[in-house]
Amino acid sequence: MNHYWKHMRYLAGGIFLLFTCNTFASPCDGVDFSLSEERKTRLAPIIAQQHGAEAVEILKSYSYRSWHIFFVNRYVADDMYFFFRSDPSQSKYLSTWSGDTSHTNEQELKQYVIKKAKGIPSELAGCFAWRVTHGMD
Predict the structure, then answer these.
(1) DSSP string of 94-110, one letter each residue
(2) Any long-range contacts for 71-75 (C-beta under 8 Å, 24+ apart)?
(3) What are phi and psi of 91, to 5 degrees?
């Protein structure tokens, strides 16, 4: 009988984990973070030109629907996020952000992004704010 309860306890724990993992969605569900070397190489000069910089390096990318956020090393100043309504080869960036993430409030940052990058999906703005304020970027 003792053996039976041991297995039941493991089964109950497994069911609990399965339930909680599926119940609590990440604020970044549906956001694509992939960034190939080819894409970095292709887009870096476009972003540099738009920003008036000699060169930049794309460090990270967020993509959701047609929208994109790129985290960029500008070499001459702090790294910066650039917000695009579509691929940078087809549109100019709408807004930028760089800041001290240790003093940034998640909801305030989300609202700032929604205000500055007009039309950005709330899901992408929320994911960005969540990752930045929780030290994931």
Answers:
(1) -EEE---GGG--HHHHH
(2) 71/137, 72/47
(3) -150, 155
Backbone angles phi, psi at 30, to 5 degrees: 90, -10
Q: For residues 56 and 47, is the Cβ–Cβ distance under 8 A? A: yes
Q: Are strands 67-73 and 57-64 parallel, antiparallel or unpaired?
A: antiparallel
How many helices (H) and strands (E) the chain has is answered by: 4, 4
Q: How far apart are CA 39 and CA 107, in angstroms?
A: 31
Distance CA 35, CA 70 (A): 10
Whole-angstrom distance, CA of residue 103 vs CA of residue 106: 10
Residues 78/69, Cβ–Cβ less than 8 Å: no
Separation of alpha carbons 87 and 111, rounded Å: 23
| 135 alpha-carbon distance from chain centroid | 11
For the stretch 28-47, pLDDT in tens is 999 999 999 999 999 999 99
Over range 10-34, report the average pLDDT: 67
User: Rounded to whole angstroms, how far apart are CA atoms 88 and 50?
Assistant: 9
Is the Cβ–Cβ distance between 106 and 28 less than 8 Å? no
